Sequence to fold (459 residues):
Amino acid sequence: MNLYLIVVLVIAIFVLERATLTALVHYKPSRRWLRHSRWLHPNMISVVRMPMGLATVALWQLGMPTIAFFWFALWMISDLTDGTIARHCNLVTETGKWLDPLSDKLLYLPVLLLFAWHGALPPVWIIALTVVDVLGQGSRLLTKKKAANVFGKSKTALVTVLLVLVAFQQLAPDRNLAGLLSPAFLHYLAVFCTVLAFLSAFCKIIPDVWYANSLSLANFGCGVASIYYVVQGYPMFAFMLVFLGQFFDLFDGRLARKYGSTRCGPIFDDVADGTSFGLAVAFIVYYQFNQSWPALLVATVYLVAVIFRLVRFLLHNDILAPGVFEGLPSPAGAMLAGSTALLFDHLPWLGLAVVVGSALLMASSLHYLHFARRMWHETPNMFKVAVCLLVLLFVSRTLADQGYRQTFKIAAFSLAALYLILGNETVALRLSGTPENRSDGAGETTEPSDEEQPRKGGG
Fold:
């Protein structure tokens, strides 16, 4: 069957399911019917989904890969169905909180193992993912945290994308997808799936107040590893670790505000940020510009600006309006300085000037909106998941193929430059048509509802 026709049919099934469920949960009579329907109860859908992974493997092995693909796609879409019914029809149960993730694992793990057995996926990482998933599911028996967290949901979405890509490769060998879906690309996707599975399981075991500190520790690890790879002569890989550290930094503050944190949480956060967004990027700047004296001076100025930025935020955050930073946030400064060092290493004076500019912006009194609390928070959840998946796919592609690295550098530089403009409080308020508010809290600026416990730190 034509590959494009397969894609169109799967998309049509997805759109039909979303349109039908949206209509059903919109009206009281249909919601009442869903609540009393035995076969459309979310837990029943989860139970029926459990053996469908093995059925998919059987269909594939019997020489019916197209039917197997549609069968798998149908039941993966049903994961959205039971969640929508549960939320909108007041059918969320303690049983469903662990039953739904279990049915997801029983659906995709057999297919992952099948592709690993045939050599389409790296066996070591698929086995590691399976072990971590089993341990994570087992942890639900020992803890009160039954429901899937954000890492588990992201992992399931990324696993689905991984399986779809491998299926396309198998269904359309004549399309010459080997160059696009290279073994290295699929390898990195499998690694990210395993990392997300580990984070999901880890967050079920640790106390809630250590959620944020754990992500700060992961951010710190990215910074230390980045410094190592710079010294070893891999600046691009080092910068990508800083880039991934920004995602940990994005979520640690959110989790701290939602679940609380330890007394030393802000210090952990600042140390992690100082390492990843300060010291690691300073190393990148110094090594990219040939370890010269001007490069050492600029790298030092940049590092001092980051430290000043973090200390000032820690001491004076209370005088600002909710969700506002004084000075360019250190993650944005790191993105700008790091991408500049990689893009303009052949134009050292221009590159060093931009790095100095990023340092001055961080130390300035200009006000910038908190990306997580004021910009990311207002983004629809579906769009957030899509953005995260696209980022992980882009990072995996860049790691696997050197031809994409220049594109990654330009994208990182462009995003940083865009935030310099749109993230500025004055510009953002003018674009939104909102009257400007004073930074001392006068005015009507309100804080998002899920951020009840601000975490000082992480500037």
